[in-house]
Amino acid sequence: MSKLKETLREKIEGWRPRTTRLIKEFGNVKLGEVTIEQAIGGMRSVKSLVTDISYLDPNEGIRFRGYTIPETLEKLPKAPGVDMPSVEGFVYLLLTGDIPSASDVQEIAAEFKARSGVPQYVFDVLRALPRDSHPMVMLSAAVVAMQRESEFAKAYEAGVNKMDYWESTYEDFMNLLAKLPTIAAYIYRMKYRADVVIPPNNDLDFGGNFAHMMGIPKPYDDVARMYFILHSDHESGNVSAHTGHLVASALSDMYYAQSAMLDGLAGPLHGLANQEVLRWIQGVMDKMDGKIPSEEEMKKFVWDTLKSGQVIPGYGHAVLRKTDPRYQTQREFCLKHLPNDDIFKFVDVLYKVVPDILVEQGKAKNPWPNVDAQSGVIQWYYGLKEYDFYTVLFGVGRAIGVGANIVWDRALGYPLERPKSLTTAMLEEVAGIKK
Ligand code: CMX
Description:
435 residues; mainly alpha; Citrate Synthase, domain 1; 3 strands; globular; binds carboxymethyldethia coenzyme *A
């Protein structure tokens, strides 16, 4: 058994009594109340999910296993000559809560290589889809097509003990994750690069191999590592993470759950916003004939968008109340690698004008930029101009966090999710509205 799986087993066995004790001895302790506004309003802030993989503080942003983004990037091992830690080490951190050693990272890299072969039928499925299908449709279809590979589904059918569900779930997670870079890059090259596919180079790490298969030179390998890590997890309540958790709670396996997760991510209020940001900026650039708008000109574009009833993509957040640290990390990368890029300058002018306008408009609870406001700029700069592909990059990253959560869901025996619904008439009655 790999050291990762062995460590995970120890962690799980140590953790289980904590969960059991909370339910048995403290099950009736209240975490909060639910208002009518929350019931109608998408369950905002209702404390009803548990995860130890990441925690989102409204002001500070995300912590992965207790570490802020700068701490995560600083503490995880890096290969010589690169700035960003490997995805392999990050997977170890999310699963176990520990910072891995360099040899732990190598062991996972070897595991990923051994598991990376994508079955031919997956490529056949992708080729059978209309070429103008959205790349998220392709990614989601490829993932669900692989459900027949599920070790969990086989183990369940064979009557595996509940306490061991996590083991085959872990196998599914690692198997799926190892294949995702190849599948994502295949979609890209098939759809946008005249179907010229670049085979994997198994000497490279997760991020490096992805950059290689995309056909984009250094430092895009670091962009890939940074991108997958930053997008991996944002606690459990966001649409993609929650969808993955919900579907898996029915004991649907990793493939079903991750495919559904991707479908949720594909919405314009969630993961599709990074493509929307670039589309919006391109629209402004067209109107400006390529010239960088002044702050006054940009203010007019922002107000025009708001007055036409649209949102400013890349701004606002359901939980965050400050600038997203994922935005900041990418901005620092831009300042280092592409300070003079026109689109980066556009994004900077936007940063100067949008928050004040959203405050003046008085609707958005958070006027600050989120992760999506900056991420497309970097992709565009490195030649990835087909912006409807950006959510696929988000999806590969998000699969890491959602998968780690699902492994722990099974380890701790989290049950089928089943909140209660009420009718409008019942809400009116609770509110004391007389008819
Ligand atoms: N531009 C214009 N209006 C905005 C806005 C924005 N960027 N962000 C919020 N608002 C509006 C909402 O549409 C809502 O209006 P109504 O009352 O007319 O419905 C009002 O402000 C209150 O919304 P909120 O409570 O501040 O935000 P929500 O929790 O409802 O929604 C989010 C959060 C992210 C969907 C929203 O801010 C938004 O639409 N942003 C633009 C899209 C985007 O960047 N999404 C990516 C989020 C990150 C991710 O998940 O990937």
